[in-house]
Specification:
This protein has 19 helices and twelve strands. The termini are far apart. A nine-stranded mixed β-sheet has the order 3-2-4-5-1-6-7-8-9, with helices on both faces. A three-stranded antiparallel β-sheet has the order 10-11-12, with helices on one face. It folds into three domains: about 170 residues, Orthogonal Bundle (DNAb Helicase, Chain A); about 260 residues, 3-Layer(aba) Sandwich (Rossmann fold), CATH 3.40.50.300; about 40 residues, no CATH class. Helix 17 links the parallel strand 4 and strand 5. With about 525 residues, the chain is α/β, with parallel strands linked by helices.
Length: about 525
């Protein structure tokens, strides 16, 4: 009861603030009192009126305080499956000690006289909701103005609070409509027909890794994909390679939330991968003239690609949701990458409890955002040390997910990055070389098969690529370039002079003739 009284006092304070602002401006607050009376009267006359409006309205939706008390009791009776009429509402108000505050029994009886027909009750309820949203916007704006005039407030705190309040207004007053079976079937058929037109069989967001896309049909919209690995397996390298493929090759906007590395560090890794230049050389700036030409030539497509990076450390799930919504609206992002999940915070509203509960809350919220924006969200995650402590090939399993089983539960796909070469396994069971091989293990796939995809990992460039793609290994090409090699900046190629008569022919990987070898 104390909690309810507190909420009512808060609602009254909000109403008073709006009234005061409107009085200063010489205007009447947005309201529809007659419609409020008609809707409440309809609810007490016909049960269908309650079911049609109960999820549209809240206590705060009503401008008249008396109507807030009456609706609160209607909702209370409905939630306990009790009949809603003049007698039951009046009786419950009396039990709650709120009858006088609600206008008395006579006033409640008068409400039904305002009802001409219950046919339009849902429309009337939506008008009431719209008036409430306008009042909330007025209240929020006044608080922003007051905070902005206060010199003791940090401007970014004011901005963050304003954005949070605006988001809360939208969240609390908009809901997802319930679709009937006919509409859902029609939408499903349209997606199936659209997928049938794709010659590559990819119905979701492509990763650029052929075998992985074949297994998953691309990352599916509204899915939460968890990619987990132990340190040094290449989690960041994998998602950066994937984001590059999606944005550059397929022109689909990608947002990357980097909680561990700065945006400049991430971009340097992308540049190293794109330009096929060792990251160490870029760090030191130890580049020759032809390498600078190579750098500028190759990053032109990367520089104009639709990749958006946010490197806010310890970002809260609330801020993540707000930023994703804004990016979706402004840039139509089609995929989100979070590096990585355990560095996020649940925020003050959800931060109570232990770390496992907090991670569970973050995991659920990420899935909610994916559904809301209808995009795949790829969340990187750490694995526990139990991987290192057990024997065998140290291949990760689902139980290795760190801190919370909720991650496994919420995710539509759980995959692991595993490099057998790192643990000293030079060959697989069939005798194939594991050198430079990274495995993507699909351990959970809610809508598809489980399997393992082999990719090529190029550590010099921190890059993953298709296993059968041509890799510009410095050991094969760079060592073959001599001082007389010519670089074509437009084509991005080297012209290597013939060494047909060289005494050291065995060291060359090129065809022994003058050739233009693409980097």
């Amino acid at each position: 009861m104390d909690n309810q009284q507190g909420k009512k006092r808060t609602a009254a304070n909000r109403t008073n603030r709006v009234n005061n602002i409107s009085a200063e401006l010489g205007k009447i607050p947005p309201q529809a009192v007659d419609l409020e009376m008609a809707v409440l009267g309809a609810m007490m006359l016909e049960r269908n009126a309650v079911t049609d409006t109960i999820d549209i309205l809240s206590n705060d939706s009503f401008y008249d305080p008396k109507h807030q008390y009456i609706f609160g009791v209607v909702k209370q009776l409905f939630s306990t499956s009790k009949p809603v009429d003049i007698l039951t509402v009046t009786d419950q108000l009396k039990k709650n000690g709120e009858l006088e505050a609600a206008g008395g029994a006579a006033y409640i009886s008068q409400l039904t006289s305002k009802v001409v027909s219950t046919a339009n009750v849902e429309y009337h309820a939506r008008v009431i909701s719209e008036k409430h949203i306008k009042r909330e916007l007025i209240r929020m704006s006044s608080e922003v103005i007051k905070s902005a005039y206060d010199e003791t407030n940090d401007v970014f705190d004011v901005l963050n609070q304003a954005e949070g309040d605006l988001f809360a207004i939208a969240e609390n007053n908009t809901g997802r409509a319930i679709d009937d079976m006919q509409n859902v079937v029609r939408e499903a058929i349209e997606e199936i027909e659209k997928a049938s037109q794709n010659s590559d069989g990819i119905s979701g967001i492509p990763t650029g890794f052929v075998s992985l896309d074949k297994l998953t049909s691309g990352w599916q919209r509204s899915d939460m994909i968890v990619i987990a690995a132990r340190p040094a397996m290449g989690k960041t390298a994998f998602v950066l390679s994937m984001a590059r493929n999606t944005a550059v090759d397929h022109n689909k906007a990608v947002a990357i939330f980097s909680l561990e590395m700065s945006s400049v560090q991430l971009v340097k890794r992308l540049i190293a991968s794109e330009a096929r230049l060792p990251a160490e050389k870029l760090r030191k700036g130890d580049l020759k003239d032809h390498e600078f030409q190579q750098l500028h030539t190759r990053i032109s497509r990367l520089a104009t690609s639709p990749i958006y990076i946010d490197d806010t450390p310890g970002i809260s799930i609330f801020d993540l949701r707000a930023k994703c919504r804004r990016l979706k609206m402004q840039h139509n992002i089609e995929m989100v990458v979070i590096d990585y999940l355990q560095l996020m915070t649940a925020g003050s509203s959800r931060g109570s409890g232990n770390r496992e509960q907090e991670i569970s809350s973050i995991s659920r919220s990420i899935k909610e955002i994916a559904k809301e924006l209808n995009i795949p969200i790829i969340a990187l995650s750490q694995l526990s040390r139990s991987v290192e402590q057990r024997g065998g090939d140290k291949r990760p399993v689902l139980s290795d997910l760190r801190e919370s089983g909720a991650i496994e539960q919420d995710a539509d796909i759980v995959s692991f990055i595993y490099r057998p070469e790192y643990y000293g396994f030079i060959q697989d069971e069939e005798g194939n070389s594991n050198q430079g091989v990274g495995e993507i293990i699909i351990a959970k796939h809610r809508n598809g098969a489980l399997n393992t995809v082999r990719l090529r990992f190029v550590p010099e460039y921190a890059r993953f690529e298709n296993i059968d793609s041509f890799s510009d290994e410095p050991s094969t090409i760079q060592s073959s370039l001599n001082a007389n090699s010519d670089f074509d900046s437009e084509a991005g190629t080297y012209t290597v002079q013939s060494k047909m008569n060289s005494l050291d022919d065995d060291s060359l990987d090129f065809d022994p003739s003058d050739s233009e070898t693409p980097f």
